[in-house]
Amino acid sequence: MSNATLVDVKDMVVRFPIRTGRGRSFITPVDRVSFTIDSGEVLALVGESGSGKTTIGKALLRIEEPSAGTIQVGNRDVTHIKGQALVRYRNDVQMIFQDPFGSLNPVKTIEQHLFFPLKKHQGLRGTELYDRTGELLERVGLTPVPETRIKYPHELSGGQRQRVAIARALAVNPKFLVADEPISMLDVSIRAGVLKLMNELKRDMNLSFLYITHDLASARYFGDRIMVLYGGHVMETAESSDLLRRPMHPYTKLLLAATPGNPVRQPLPETSNQAPDLLEGRKGCVFATRCPLVTDLCRNEKPPLQSLDAGHAVACHYAV
Ligand SMILES: Nc1ncnc2c1ncn2[C@@H]1O[C@H](COP(=O)(O)OP(=O)(O)OP(=O)(O)O)[C@@H](O)[C@H]1O
Ligand SMILES: [Mg+2]
Predict the structure, then answer these.
(1) Which is higher by pLDDT, 34 or 263?
(2) What's the CA-to-centroid distance between 42 and ligand 2, angstroms?
(3) Which of 70, 111, 115, 71 shows the shortest CA–CA distance to 92?
(4) Percentages helix, strand, coil for the chain, rounded to the nearest 5?
(5) Burial call 135-158: b when 16+ CB within 10 Å, e when fewer
(6) Binding-site residues, ligand 1, Cβ < 6 A
(7) Is 60 exceeded by the pLDDT of residue 242?
(8) CATH architecture type of domain 5-314
């Protein structure tokens, strides 16, 4: 682990019990996923619905329990911490959710949303508490501050509410944020403003992000690196500009072909919409049922994630 590495996840597995005709078995929506995030770096996690993005974010925060693998943050192994250590860890790592309204309390004013973490985690009182609340609101662009303080969530727009959620996450001085589709429920016209704010926080506060999104365009804007996920497996990972210029995995190519203004001229034909099989113990490549290039090798052998060159890795038997 290099000095700059803040988050180091190795071979993480999350499994959930499900009922089948033959009794109980498991699905593995996150299957041996590994990645690192440096201080001040944004890793964008891209994949379609059900690919395991939120589950990875939650497992990182230990909201879901990984059943295998390790999670190291800073220089600490946090995979199995409990009690007070877990409470302290959750201060260092905060999560911003898709629905900013759902995460705010309708009967509390905006400043009350910030008072709680500032009192509880920072021990602030009186004028210190008041001033810090003002600084945070200013920092996320919720001005004029005196007016914003006393508003209720329903008096704000979706974008403003998401800014409150971001301010609240910042209140505990985190090093690392998981932002789970933070702009997907916002009006298109205000998405760019919220992304720009997160980009400023990254730059000015050296914050790291796991940025979860469906959308390769925002992943390229905000992500230093992109990791493409399908059926709980990493398909491809590379620096953002490299991934968009030289996609190697057939799934990345399909995703890119569906992105407006995409640079891939000849998209692959889509062969089926079949959802990936997440049942534990399946064999072969998880993308085989949808891949236009599928062969028997793919149906029988899972391709390893192989590093091709500087920071570009792909899990495909036929990647070029
Ligand atoms: N608590 C749970 N119990 C059982 N299955 C679950 C649970 N949480 C998630 N899953 C399943 O795990 C898979 C991955 O879900 P996840 O929410 O991580 O996907 P996602 O990539 O975030 O999708 P979306 O883009 O729709 O948010 C899905 O098949 C989902 O149904
Ligand atoms: Mg999700």
Answers:
(1) 34
(2) 18
(3) 71
(4) 35, 25, 40
(5) ebbebbbbeeeeebbeeebeebeb
(6) 16, 29, 47, 49-55, 278
(7) yes
(8) 3-Layer(aba) Sandwich (3.40)
Cβ neighbors of 205 (< 8 A, separation 6 or more) are 170
Cα gap 135→152, rounded to integer Å: 19
- Above 60 in pLDDT, residue 2? no
Residue that is written with structure tokens 């600084």 in the block: 135
Name the DSSP letter for residue 171: T
What average pLDDT does the structure give for the chain?
91
Q: Please give the full DSSP string across 95-113, using - where no structure is assigned.
A: EE-S-TTTTS-TTS-HHHH
Residue 135's pLDDT is what? 97
Which residue in the block uniquely carries the two structure tokens 């999670």?
A: 71
- Domain spans of the chain, in order of start: 5-314
Token pair for 202: 């990254």
* The token pair that represents 217 in the structure block: 């365009």
Ligand 1 closest atom vs CA 58: 18
pLDDT digits (tens, 9 = 90+) for 5-49: 999 999 999 999 988 777 788 899 999 999 999 999 999 999 999
Q: Tell me if 227 sits within 8 A of 37, measured CB to CB.
A: no
